[in-house]
């Protein structure tokens, strides 16, 4: 890991916040300790123990330096031939602040000092506030200026919630349809599109009728009200609405995924809301990708994006150029290098899985088919292939078992002869014995003659 550079300190004025007396005491007591905790420029490709220990030391030193503040690690990537930073997340929380800042960083509207490695939530808020002031429109009418100032005032009142979570209430009719809340003003002022994919398929009439134009909160209230109603039709609507929420617990439907793919513009940088989590999203060559901000991939330079192509969340990892890049083995995830043979094998395996999933004959799909029906057909095709595989395995096992059984039968055939064959063999034995007895009698006669 690299140390927190002097540019980082001077840029944010961190040194000015420390009294001179405390600074002198720190210099007298622990210059050597500070040097050990914050070493100089260190390559990223190091041993796992060194990387983990060093990252923990830097993080601990940062928390001591900025007590009571959240500290985030910065990952530098090569984005469109530019050395660009992104903020990683150390805890699995909503934190829309990181999603918004990563959009601004990837679009180069906000820039950090080179080689900066850690940053606090307070400093991120300062960068965001400075950008909001700089982005103020210049040539606008008086009415527009008053409206903008009012929106800016409302946004500043809720800006602190970006560190924890925003009150976002989706509606199930469109990928950009949210119930109006003051928190949404932040995205409008920053000109950052906010999307979700929790949509009702318009071709399923009963769900469309049950959900209507309700937001999520309104739908939950409607379900509770319908359950307590004496009207059987309302009770049925409440049951259908509840089933919809249960069946779409991932907060992403296939219809929503199709709408997202068609609505998001090519190359657009935006924020995607799902499962109370905010992610940075973009579109490349017709496919959607989510920015990988998990701190566990901090040293994985080739893991930047994750594809969003199904509702289950098992996407494929890609680099900054959207080339498929499987992650390193967990045992070597912090070493920064992976054996090329393993990389080639994993990539070939992933490509094979993608090819198998695309072998469905799309020309046979009838026109006007709903997204739900199409998803069911995909699942049926997958189940059919799995069933065919298991049948082949069973047939192979039966063939092996029958072959071994026939071999054993051939080996034990003389001892396990049938009754008829036993009788035949007995007769032949008696027939063989009769000549022998006659020969013995002749021998006795000869012997008796000799004796006489």
Topology record:
Blueprint: H1 6-12, H2 20-37, H3 48-65, E1 71-79, E2 82-87, H4 96-106, E3 118-120, H5 121-134, H6 142-158, H7 184-190, E4 194-195, H8 205-211, H9 216-227, H10 232-247, H11 254-263, E5 270-274, E6 277-284, E7 287-291, E8 305-307, E9 317-318, H12 340-357, H13 371-411, H14 419-451
InterPro entries: MINDY, MINDY_domain
Biased composition (Basic and acidic residues): 428-452
Pfam families: MINDY_DUB
Task: Report strand %.
Answer: 5-15%
- Biggest sheet record: 6 strands, mixed
- Determine the N-to-C terminus distance: 121 Å
**Helix and strand string, N-terminal first?**
HHHEEHEHHHEHHHHEEEEEHHH
Structural class: alpha+beta
Q: What integer value in Å does the Rg equal?
A: 37 Å
* Total of DSSP H or I helical runs spanning 4+ residues: 14
Mean pLDDT: 74
Write out the strand line-up for the largest beta sheet, numbering strands in chain order.
Answer: 4-5-6-7-8-9
Shape: flat
Percent of residues in helical segments?
Answer: 40-55%
Q: Report low-confidence residues grouped into runs of 5 or more.
A: 1-52, 331-345, 359-363, 414-433, 446-452
Strand runs, count:
9
Biased composition (Basic and acidic residues): 428-452
Biased composition (Low complexity): 397-426
Protein name: Ubiquitin carboxyl-terminal hydrolase
GO molecular function: cysteine-type carboxypeptidase activity; cysteine-type deubiquitinase activity; histone deubiquitinase activity; K48-linked deubiquitinase activity; K48-linked polyubiquitin modification-dependent protein binding
């Amino acid at each position: 890991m690299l140390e927190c550079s002097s540019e980082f300190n001077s840029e944010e004025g961190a040194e000015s916040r420390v009294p001179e007396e405390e600074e002198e005491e720190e210099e007298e007591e622990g210059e050597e300790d500070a040097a050990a905790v914050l070493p100089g420029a260190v390559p990223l490709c190091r041993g796992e123990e060194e990387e983990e220990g060093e990252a923990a030391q830097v993080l601990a030193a940062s928390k001591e330096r900025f007590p009571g503040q959240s500290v985030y690690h910065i990952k530098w990537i090569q984005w469109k031939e530019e050395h660009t930073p992104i903020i990683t997340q150390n805890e699995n929380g909503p934190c829309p602040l990181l999603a918004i800042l990563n959009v601004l960083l990837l679009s180069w509207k906000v820039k950090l000092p080179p080689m900066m490695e850690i940053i606090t939530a307070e400093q991120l808020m300062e960068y965001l506030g400075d950008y909001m002031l700089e982005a103020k429109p210049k040539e606008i009418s008086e009415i527009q200026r008053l409206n903008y100032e009012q929106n800016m005032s409302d946004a500043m009142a809720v800006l602190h919630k970006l560190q924890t979570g925003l009150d976002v209430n989706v509606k199930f009719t469109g990928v950009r349809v949210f119930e109006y809340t003051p928190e949404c003003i932040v995205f409008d002022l920053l000109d950052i599109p906010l999307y979700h994919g929790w949509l009702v398929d318009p071709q399923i009439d009963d769900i469309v009728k049950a959900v209507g134009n309700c937001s999520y909160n309104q739908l939950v209230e409607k379900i509770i009200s319908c359950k307590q109603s004496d009207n059987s039709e309302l009770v049925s609507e409440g049951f259908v609405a509840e089933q919809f929420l249960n069946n779409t617990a991932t907060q992403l439907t296939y219809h929503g995924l199709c709408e997202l793919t068609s609505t998001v513009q090519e190359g657009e940088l935006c924020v995607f809301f799902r499962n109370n989590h905010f992610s940075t999203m973009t579109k490349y060559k017709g496919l959607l990708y989510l920015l990988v901000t998990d701190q566990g991939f901090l040293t994985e330079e080739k893991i930047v994006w994750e594809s969003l192509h199904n509702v289950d969340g098992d996407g494929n990892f890609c680099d900054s150029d959207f080339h498929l890049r499987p992650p390193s083995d967990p045992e070597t995830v912090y070493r920064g290098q992976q054996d090329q043979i393993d990389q080639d094998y994993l990539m070939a395996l992933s490509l094979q899985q993608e090819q198998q999933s695309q072998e469905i004959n799309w020309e046979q799909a009838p026109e006007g088919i709903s997204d739900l029906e199409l998803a069911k057909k995909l699942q049926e095709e997958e189940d059919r292939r799995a069933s065919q595989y298991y049948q082949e395995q069973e047939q192979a096992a039966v063939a092996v078992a029958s072959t071994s059984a026939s071999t054993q039968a051939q080996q034990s055939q003389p001892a396990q002869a049938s009754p008829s064959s036993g009788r035949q063999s007995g007769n032949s034995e008696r027939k063989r014995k009769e000549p022998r007895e006659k020969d013995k009698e002749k021998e006795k006669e000869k012997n008796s003659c000799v004796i006489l």
